[in-house]
Write a structure and sequence with these properties.
By secondary structure, the chain is an alpha/beta fold. Helices cover 50% and strands 10% of the residues.
Amino acid sequence: MALLTEADVRAMSADGTRGPVVVRAHEILTPGARDYLREHKVEVVYPQGEGGKEPEAAPRYRTLFGAELTTKPEHMTHLHGNILVCKDHPRIAFRGMIDLLEAEILLAQQAAADYPTLAHELEEVLSFVRRFIRCDVLSEPLGEFTLCGYTPEQLREYSHYPEKHFGQPHFLPSRTDSPALLAVNKVRAVARQTELSAYAAFRDADGGVTRPDIILGLNRLSSLLWILMIKCKAGRYST
């Protein structure tokens, strides 16, 4: 479905004759275009209708800029309900990052197949990550949470002071580390990128965020993933 904007109909009726503007079956007028045509008394012709009248098909979708559509354009997708946005909308980009994060968690579970406890903890991580889409689409709060037995406060504390709590100082991953540790590191990096995309999606005009619960959840998730890496490095997981 193509949208005809005010600029489009201005160009179509700019020959000075104010001849009719033809709206074809795959096209729809935006509210601005309708107002312009009505104000300038430009005739609108719908070849697909009878007697030059617009078809009576009820619109099924709405856009954030006020247009009503009977079919969903390929370049648009659902924000929530019947509201459509372009696929590069920040909220849609955030949902795409959640998809990528889920995919990396599954690969990390595969890499951790020899460490049942780690694989189980990653399953809990996967369930937690899958909550974010529901929270976004349905505008539900994330709510209070613990991850692998850690509260948000403990996740911050333990990830900042791993030597105190696990006997393992901070470290830089190396190619000599186990595939499981490196896979969790990849999940951690993607979680960080997901947090950035969430900030872009929920940033308000003053630089704050409209969904601080989602930002907090993702921040503490990356803390947990660092803790899992610390435990891998410290040999806390047995086969």
